[in-house]
Amino acid sequence: MDALTLLTQRHSSPRLTEPGPDASQLDTILAAAVKAPDHAALTPWQFVIAQGEGLLKLGEIFYRAAQAKGESGEALARARLLPTRAPMVITVIAKVQAHPKVPAIEQHLSAGCAAMAMQMAAQALGLGGIWRTGSYAFDPVVRQALGVEGEDQIVGFLYLGTPLSKAPNKKSPDPADYVCYL
Ligand SMILES: Cc1cc2nc3c(=O)[nH]c(=O)nc-3n(C[C@H](O)[C@H](O)[C@H](O)COP(=O)(O)O)c2cc1C
């Protein structure tokens, strides 16, 4: 797949199954992540990879967060299962450093670019993925469990695996609707 096809045909895959990225594919995905644009070369990111047992550990963290929010019944049980919707979940964290020229927003954006780069790399490798946040990305229990402090931010949970369904036949927005010229 050439670069422009990837950029213009990119899509998410919400329904994923095994196999997830193998070791060599994961290396490629992470190599794409660390090429994200990065003001002052702060490398303001951390990637927490969960697969196998790791998915259950992440589910346990979501479960504790749901408990702390007072969830019960099905909602509580669902929290534990959320990460098992894919063979691999990469939690993308913006690790913000104090810098006179690089505010937190720029470091959050860099981490977001890394998330998209990983999703694109996965798609180029024939895999699929979806970038999710949901309330757990902002949850204090989840933040603490993953060492997310201060202006750090979980920018997303990138679910990766093999798509269960074909690319959706979805109309793209018309770029002209968002463009003006000075
Ligand atoms: C920061 C961010 C957070 C997102 N969080 C969710 C989410 O929690 N759940 C979800 O279904 N989609 C979420 N999305 C949207 C999907 O990743 C995806 O872009 C959307 O389903 C549209 O599909 P497409 O990428 O194929 O156009 C999020 C996207 C971004 C950029």
Q: What keywords describe this structure?
A:
182 residues, alpha+beta, NADH Oxidase, five-stranded antiparallel sheet, 38% helix, globular, binds flavin mononucleotide
Succession of helices and strands = HEHEHHEHEHE
CATH second-level architecture: 3-Layer(aba) Sandwich
The CATH H-level superfamily is NADH Oxidase
Whole-Å distance between the termini? 35 Å
CATH fold node name: NADH Oxidase
Find the structural class using helix and strand composition: alpha+beta
Query: What ligands can be seen in this structure?
Result: flavin mononucleotide
The number of helical runs is 6
Average predicted confidence as pLDDT:
97
Tell me the number of structural domains.
1
> What characterizes the major β-sheet?
5 strands, antiparallel
Q: Name the beta content range.
A: 15-25%
Q: Which regions contain 5 or more consecutive residues with pLDDT less than 50?
A: none
Explained architecture:
Its cofactor is FMN. Keywords: Flavoprotein, FMN, NAD, NADP, Oxidoreductase. This is Putative NAD(P)H nitroreductase. The chain has 182 residues and is α+β, with helices and mostly antiparallel strands. It has a single domain, classed as 3-Layer(aba) Sandwich (NADH Oxidase). It is 38% helix and 18% strand. The chain has helices at residues 3-9, 23-33, 53-68, 73-81, 104-124, 140-145; strands spanning 16-17, 45-51, 88-94, 128-132, 153-163. Strands 1, 2, 3, 4 and 5 form a 5-stranded antiparallel β-sheet that branches. Helix 2 (23-33) runs antiparallel to helix 5 (104-124) and helix 3 (53-68) runs antiparallel to helix 4 (73-81). The chain is globular and about 50 Å long. The protein starts with a helix and ends in a 19-residue tail after the last strand. 33% of the residues are buried. The model has no long low-confidence stretch (mean pLDDT 97). Bound molecules: flavin mononucleotide. Residues 11-12, 130-134, 156 line the site of flavin mononucleotide.
